[in-house]
Amino acid sequence: LATGPRQNNSIFYEIRTYDIKPSKMKDFVEVVNKYFHLRTAHSELVGFWSAELGAMNKVVHVWKYDNFAHRAAVRHALTNDKDWQGKFLSSALPLIEKQHNEVAYLVPWCQLGKPPKEGGVYEWVTFRMKPGGPALWGEAFQAAINTHVSAGYTKLIGIFHTEYGLLNTVHVIWWNESPDHRAAGRHSAHEDARVVAAVRDSVRFLDSQENMLLIPLPCSPLK
């Protein structure tokens, strides 16, 4: 990790989080299922999930862009897409209470992965690290992640480090077959001396962390 470019190319990911009005979540999902193909015609969707645990009435979706010019061109095209504006946005915007976005890079030692099969659940873990950037905490954090991966208690999907938004933030996506499978893996990890030692070293640089259990929507490439 470095404080400069996160990878050898300009690809980045936009993470969009929407809080949906509590009484409108079902309506929002129906609108997404009906019209979201209009949005994915313009750029690549990585994943789209609704929160099951750790948050309520919240959705998270991640988009991949070649560079910032690519994103600008897509946003411009969307403003001129009458179907997108008239069918999806006109129906969805009244259902949304709040929107938030971040721009993030994949950490250079992690490739975006896929689950071994469909039908599981995703854990989205957000780490807020001490100021100083990856040059300060990157090595210890990487060691902690790699220890979890090698232990095999859960499947790593991706690790993103923010470039715009709340800085010194890392989002890690894990996949499990079920919430119970995730709970069993956590229990095993807590008793694994390798994991405990690696985590103990990395938490020196941690300010806070939170997580959500996410369920993929039908339109999500990551299912």
Automatic annotation (TrEMBL):
<feature type="domain" description="NIPSNAP">
    <location>
        <begin position="122"/>
        <end position="221"/>
    </location>
</feature>
<dbReference type="InterPro" id="IPR012577">
    <property type="entry name" value="NIPSNAP"/>
</dbReference>
<feature type="domain" description="NIPSNAP">
    <location>
        <begin position="13"/>
        <end position="111"/>
    </location>
</feature>
<dbReference type="InterPro" id="IPR051557">
    <property type="entry name" value="NipSnap_domain"/>
</dbReference>
<comment type="similarity">
    <text>Belongs to the NipSnap family.</text>
</comment>
<dbReference type="GO" id="GO:0000423">
    <property type="term" value="P:mitophagy"/>
</dbReference>
<protein>
    <submittedName>
        <fullName>NPS3A protein</fullName>
    </submittedName>
</protein>
<dbReference type="GO" id="GO:0005739">
    <property type="term" value="C:mitochondrion"/>
</dbReference>
<dbReference type="InterPro" id="IPR011008">
    <property type="entry name" value="Dimeric_a/b-barrel"/>
</dbReference>
<dbReference type="Pfam" id="PF07978">
    <property type="entry name" value="NIPSNAP"/>
</dbReference>
